From TrEMBL:
The keyword Metal-binding applies. Residues 246-424 form the Dyp-type peroxidase C-terminal domain. Residues 1-30 are annotated as: Disordered. It comes from the Bacteria. Keywords: Heme, Iron, Lyase, Metal-binding, Oxidoreductase, Peroxidase, Signal. This is Deferrochelatase.
Length: 437
């Protein structure tokens, strides 16, 4: 693969092309046209990501619809996919590491990083899907050819089990905040949908782009890492862009109103990014990272649908139409918690009820068919990022699990926690380099 040739210099036109709305428009750098440039190396990936950065702006808060085909920069101090404006679709995968060889795991992380750099820039993996040796399987499976980058982000995390004794020599490097989550009251966790040594969160505005990305990583990992479980999400249930319309969850309520905005750097520093002072010594590799809690929360949709509107609104402490807190008229009005029922979801989850505990929510709705009894297997795939799980998700969830009236309509059926390392700085860096240094 050539590192750089005259074809890999990203043409000026393509800087704007990142912002072109129409798929296949003359200047749009679709995966197909990119492939046509032939032999495009990582230099192109990085350059394309750079131009997209210009189009979107790092941590951009407002994404006009016309930009949804664009690329989100892969490189940076923090991983993309956390403060990034939430994309429409999700494919989340947890992996078990099968190899016992530390060097092989390191090589896998390097290979994944190089593939992620390319895919997030709208490029196929390796030498691509077509045009290679007819005798060999192509490097890329091809289903994203012709599709735009679609704001694909790939975010990796390391589960507690990766740090276990006698595995990869990482036991001394497990950050204290990467705790095993306790079993909360009401949890009905399926081990086959829980845990994992590694996770990759793929978010994109095109579901095929997200699924393609996870599939390529799984292929690259063959023999070294096996997918343990995965989850598709079809509609964001939280946004990090407050000026946009707040999405609704499967219960029909606006979700994500009081979330951390992707542009609120002060709140991100306070509640989401791990600071250097949090992780002195052997855990210093986590500075600039974050902790992710993933919960598959099934909703008893049929019961919910038979619940009167007033009761539904009392359960959340917000009205259904506007999303305004009880006693207020506008969605963004400050909630007055005492006006809500004592066990309303918002009242219990609010930072004022949890010593200031605050999380960045980034979940998605899911519907995985029916359960054999004619009920929808649907709900919320809850994703929350935070600086310290012990001071954020755990206290909030303890409170919710104990008293939330919403519990009558939901059940937590899957659970995982991951240490999400800082961003990949440049093309020589790779996911987890500081951890394995
Ligand atoms: C299926 C399960 C859940 C549903 C349907 C749900 C729905 C909602 C809705 C509609 C809101 C109000 C709008 C907003 O500010 O976003 C809200 C707020 C919130 N939820 Fe949930 N939620 C669920 C689970 C959870 C869990 C497991 C947690 C954390 C452990 C959580 C934490 C929060 C927080 C922190 C707020 C904002 C409270 C505030 O600051 O006013 N939620 N949720």
């Amino acid at each position: 693969m050539s590192e750089q040739n005259e074809e890999t210099a990203v043409p000026e036109a393509d800087t704007q092309a990142q912002a072109q709305p129409a798929r296949g428009a003359a200047a749009a750098p679709s995966r197909r046209t990119v492939l046509g440039w032939g032999g495009a190396g990582l230099a192109l990936g990085a350059a394309a990501a750079g131009t997209a950065a210009a189009a979107l702006g790092g941590g951009s808060d407002h994404v006009p619809a016309a930009l949804t085909g664009a690329a989100v920069p892969f490189h940076g101090p923090n991983q993309a996919g956390i403060a990034t404006p939430v994309q429409d679709r999700l494919h989340f995968a947890a992996f078990d590491v099968k190899t016992k060889d530390r060097a092989e795991l390191v090589q896998l992380l390097k290979d994944w990083t190089r593939a992620a750099e390319r895919m997030t820039a709208g490029l196929p993996v390796g030498e691509g899907a077509v045009g290679g040796l007819p005798e060999a399987p192509p490097d890329d499976t091809g289903e994203a050819l012709g599709l735009k980058p679609s704001r694909l982000t790939l975010t990796i995390g390391f589960g507690p089990s990766l740090f276990a004794k006698d595995r990869f020599g990482l036991e001394g490097r497990r950050p204290e905040a990467l705790v095993d989550l306790e079993l909360f009251p009401g949890d009905n966790l399926d081990p086959a949908r829980s845990g994992g040594d590694l996770c990759v969160q793929a978010c994109a505005d095109d579901p095929q782009v997200a699924v393609h990305a996870i599939r390529q990583l799984a292929r690259i990992g063959f023999g070294k890492a096996a997918m343990r479980w995965s989850q598709l999400g079809f509609g964001k249930t939280s946004s990090t862009t407050p000026e946009e319309q707040t999405p609704r969850n499967m219960m029909g309520f606006k979700d994500g109103t009081r979330n951390i905005a992707g542009t609120d750097t002060a709140a991100l520093d306070e509640h989401v990014w791990v600071a250097g002072k949090d992780v002195a010594g052997p855990s210093a590799w986590m500075a600039g990272g974050s902790y992710l809690v993933a919960r598959r929360i099934r909703m008893n949709i049929e019961t919910w649908d038979r619940t009167p509107l007033q009761e539904q609104e009392d359960i959340f402490g917000r009205d259904k139409a506007e999303g305004a807190p009880v006693g207020k008229s506008k969605e963004r009005d400050e909630p007055f918690l005492k006006a809500m029922k004592p066990e309303a979801h918002v009242r219990l989850a609010h930072p004022d009820s949890n010593n200031g505990a605050t999380i960045l929510r980034r979940g998605y709705s899911f519907t995985d068919g029916t359960d054999g009894l004619g009920r929808l297997d649907a709900g919320l795939f809850f994703l929350a990022y935070q600086r310290d799980v012990r001071k954020a998700f755990i206290p909030i969830q303890r409170q919710l699990a104990k008293s939330d009236v919403l519990n009558e309509y939901i059940q937590h059926v899957g659970s995982a926690v991951f240490a999400v390392p800082p961003g990949v700085r440049d093309k020589d860096d790779w996911w987890g380099r500081a951890l394995f240094a």
